[in-house]
Each structure stands twice: as structure tokens, then as C-alpha cells.
Amino acid sequence: METTLRGVGVSHGVAIGEVRHMGTAVLEPPAKQIPADEAPREQARARQAVEAVANDLIARGNLAGGEAQAVLEAQALMAQDPELMADVERRIAVGSSAERAVYDAFASYRALLANAGEYLAGRVADLDDVRNRIVARLLGVPMPGVPDSDEPYVLIARDLAPADTALLDPSLVLGFVTEEGGPTSHSAILARALGVPAVVALPGATELAEGTVVAVDGSTGDIYVDPGKDRRAELAKAAEERRAALAATSGPGATSDGHKVPLLANVGGPADVEAAVKAGAEGVGLFRTEFLFLDDSKNAPSEEKQVEAYRQVLEAFPEGRVVVRVLDAGADKPLEFLTPADEPNPALGVRGLRTLLAHPDVLHTQLRALARAAEGLPVYLEVMAPMVADRVDAKAFADACREAGLHAKFGAMVEIPSAALRARSILQEVEFLSLGTNDLAQYTFAADRQVGSVSRLQDPWQPALLDLVAAAAEAARAEGKSCGVCGEAASDPLLACVLTGLGVTSLSMGAASLPYVRATLAKYTLAQCERAAAAARATDTADEARRAAQAVLSGE
User: Fold this and answer.
1) Catalytic residue selected from 12, 359, 483, 486
2) In terms of CB atoms within 10 Å, which of 61, 128, 404, 484 comes out highest?
3) Are 381 and 372 in contact (CB under 8 A)?
4) Pairing relation of β-strands 222-225 and 153-157?
5) d(CA 556, CA 552)
6) Residue 132, CB-side half-sphere exposure with 13 Å CA sphere
7) Which domain holds residue 200?
8) Does 438 count as an annotated binding residue?
9) Other beta carbons within 10 Å of 239
10) How far is it, in rounded angstroms, from Cα 462 to Cα 450?
């Protein structure tokens, strides 16, 4: 008998297939004492395992490329964290085996994060995955992971680590469902990049029996268990209509009455460019530059290396718009040469622009490299700062851009509620705004984007978040300047219409989402989008906002 479950849809499309479960977690190592004279050998084993895991994560990143590469390189840095390694060696020195010392050191760090509510590189799913990989290597057992199967299947897991998500084979993994995670988790972002239908934050997902047939709707978040003939036909029809709409729509983004909404791509480096161009991106709305800095956590990349990488992306969009975000270090992207290791709460400490202003040489080198990379190219270069809090921040960034001789538009990301509330003040110093809805939601609701239990507060349909988007867009309109969205909210086709109705002037997303957003925008007029936005803001919950907007656009 068919039953319906509801999670959070994070990647478009429908998948129907049998359930296969992710391998079980690594067993807890026994707590046995070792003789004191074995401690040096055990410490060496631990160091070798850590390096092997870090190298494996980097190799997986190199294979995956793009955003996945940056995520996995960040995980590799986590594995090599000097404080964690020092803790492991201290535990071995007092009698723990290497595997037990690793297990306990990571458990201690995990508990610290959970109790303090911190938002660090040791995000829970990522941290657990690194621990499991090191312990498995030390125990000499295979690392549990994606199941072996000759037939396509729907993957079920408590959570998916980036190392597993990045290398999923879409020809075998029809879609995936997780019990944990949220719409802006690493796994959700990578699923969208792969074009694999996915649903996260589904309570009881791991209780689905192996071999059960499920239908996964990554757009709505619905999971149909043992779907009947009528349900399968309904989903197939919807999927075919979606494919037809995608095939029929091309060219620049616009509403049905001709209101232009440039559709841009989020890229994590040169490896993402091909997919963005193929999907018809009109430019880049968010060029994340962290990938260059993650290669070596102890030293900044040279100016020459930066020039080469930036130019590869700029050359791909002749006469297009490319918006570059300068280095966003700190919190979830710690760098040994930049970010302090002893901050009590790095998410609320020195991160983003604050980090760069504390290290002006790093900022100046990056800005100078961007200026050189753009020389002689017809590209429209725009450069923005992350984590801008107020006009003082905006002025400091604009002054740094001028000092570096950068001939480009200077902008500010709106990721902190204060920036949205005082957007008009910030726009006295910069020429455009870009809304990072992932962090803006996190800071607005005090809800870690990696914690499934608070995923409802990470939902970009939350009316309070829409209010902040509207405030920033209205300020930009009043100043005659632009205000785009580059957070994951832009990848939701229905929400893209609402954002357009709120006054957002461009939308940037992963390449896989561009066709869906383009086709949906083309179905509605600007006035319809504005009415849908007003209806969504008049509600009190994310679900109500979504339903209200849908009702307006469907003519109900």
C-alpha cells in the first residue's frame, strides 16, 4: 500500500527505484591499554593514517573537480588539524591505541561543537566522516560507503559525507534520501551540481527496508513508498512535462512579459565553467575563490597563480558579467596562515572580510591579481566582499579595491541581517549587493545549516528571510543599483519567481538548476511574480509561504 513521507527537496527531478542503504558506520575501537614503549609506534601509525586519508580526500576532489574539489580539500585540512593531531598523540602517550585515540579525540571535539553551538570546519557530518576514514584505515577494514550494485537504485543514508556525494555515479544512483542535512548542506549543494534528485531531513529515512521501491521527488521533497501504477504515471507525466519545458526555453532569463532577469552561475573554479556555459549561463554571479587557498593551508597562493586561475574563468564569458567573491576564510573554511585557532565561536568572530582586513597583504594581492587577470578582456568584472556588516566594512573594501588599481564594480554580500536592514547605507560605498541566502538564513535564525533538526529554519521560504531580501532589494532600487541573489534560494524555480517579485535583479545558481529556473520564469509575468511575493510575505511559515506563492502563480 502506498504511503507518502515528506522531507526537504534539494535537487530537482524524480527517481523511482529500489532502496539501497549506505554502509554502516565504523565500529567503536576497543579501549585497550598499550605498553609505554609502543607509544611512538602508535603515534607514527596515527600520523600515517591521517596523511593517507587527507591524500585520499584530495585525490577524490581532483577527480570530482568544481565545488566538490573545494569541499573535499577543506575536509583534508580538517583531517590534518594540528590541534586534533596533538590531542591524538597525547592520548596515545598515556596508553591509548592509535585507533582509540583518534576515536576519542574526534568525539571530544564533536561534543565541544555540539555543546557550544559552534559553526566550524568540523561540521558534524564532515567531522564524523573524517574520523571514520582514519579509524577504518587503522583497523585495516574497508571504509563503509556507497553499496556495490549492478542495477540502479535509490541511496538511503543517515547523512552523506561530501567524499561520498562527490563521486556518486548518476547512472547507478538514481537519487538519494538522507535523514539528516539541510537544503544548504554540502551534500545538497553537490547533489544539485550532479543533477541527482535528492531529499534530505526525512525523519526515519534509514528505517526504509532494503529493496523497498520508492519514488523520490527532489522538487517537492515527497517520498512515495511502494508507489502504485497511477502515482508512477503521474510522476512520469510531470517529469516529461518538465523536460519539454526545459527543451523549449533558451536564451537570457526573463519573465513572460519581457522583464529581464539575468541567470548566472555559481562556480567554484575553472572546472565548473564548462557546465555553466553549456547550461546557458549569462555570466557568473558567484565565483568562489577559496579553491586556490585550500591547496596549502600554511601559505597564500602567489599572485601569478591567482592571475592564471582567474583569467581562465574570465575568458569563458566574453562580454559577460563575472562577479568574484574575494577570499571567504574563517568559520567553515579555516586557513592556518589566516584564521585564529582559538576563537570561542568563529562563525561570529573573524571571518570573511574581517579576516582580509586583518591581513591587508592577502587582500591586496588578490585584488591586484584580479586586476591583472581582467586586463585586455571585454568581460564585465565585479568584485564583492563576504560578510559585510555595515558601511564601515563597505568603505574599507572599496578603498582597498581602489588602492589595488582594480577597474571593476565593487560590491557587498548581504549575509548578515544588519547588512540587509542598513543596505541603503552600505550602497553609499559600493555599487551592488549580492544576497548570500545560505548564511543570511543561518544568522537570522541562529540555525546551523548542517543540522537536520533545525532545517525548517534554513528553509529559504521563511517569511522573515523574504522580508530581509525585500529590504535589500528595495534599498538597491532606491539607489538605482543592482541586488542579486547568489545563495541556494535562487536554484528553486518557484522561489526564483518570488525573488524576482521582491525586486531582485539577477539570480545565480549551480549550472544544473539554470534550465529549470529559466523555464519557470518564462511562464509568468512580472506582475504575477510580484503578487506571489506579496502573498508569500503575508504568511507565517515557510510551508504557508510556498503554498501561497504556488496558489497565486497557478491562478487558484
Assistant:
1) 486
2) 484
3) no
4) unpaired
5) 6
6) 19
7) 3-22+147-243
8) yes
9) 18
10) 17
Q: Which amino acid is at 302?
A: S
Active site annotation includes 486: yes
Same domain (yes/no): 101, 197: no
338 and 200 within one domain: no
How many domains does the chain fold into?
Answer: 3
- CA-to-CA dists, residue 255 to 91, 261, 264, 543, angstroms: 62, 7, 15, 24
Residue 232 belongs to a domain with what CATH number?
3.50.30.10
Question: What CATH number is associated with residue 453?
Answer: 3.20.20.60
Kindly report, residue by residue over 221-258, the tens digit of the pLDDT: 999 999 999 999 998 888 887 777 777 778 899 999 99
- For residue 87 the three cell numbers come to 590531542
- Has residue 30 been placed in a domain? no
Say whether 282 counts as a known binding-site residue. no
Residue 450 pLDDT grade (very low, low, confident, very high; cuts 50, 70, 90): low
Q: Is residue 439 marked as binding?
A: yes
* 265 and 329 share one domain: yes
CA distance linking residue 178 with residue 198, whole number of Å = 8
Which set of grid coordinates corresponds to residue 330?
Answer: 574563517
Last-in-domain residue among 243, 276, 304: 243
Is 415 annotated for ligand binding?
A: yes
User: Letter for the amino acid at 228?
Assistant: G
> Among residues 86, 108, 139, which one ends one of the domains?
139
Q: What is the pLDDT of residues 120-153, one digit of tens each?
A: 433 566 778 889 889 988 988 877 678 878 899 9
Selecting among 12, 186, 359, 529, the annotated active-site residue is 186
Q: Does residue 371 share a domain with residue 237?
A: no
Q: Flag whether 28 is in a domain.
A: no
Residue 497 annotated in active site? no
Handedness of CA 417, 458, 431, 528 (dihedral sign): negative
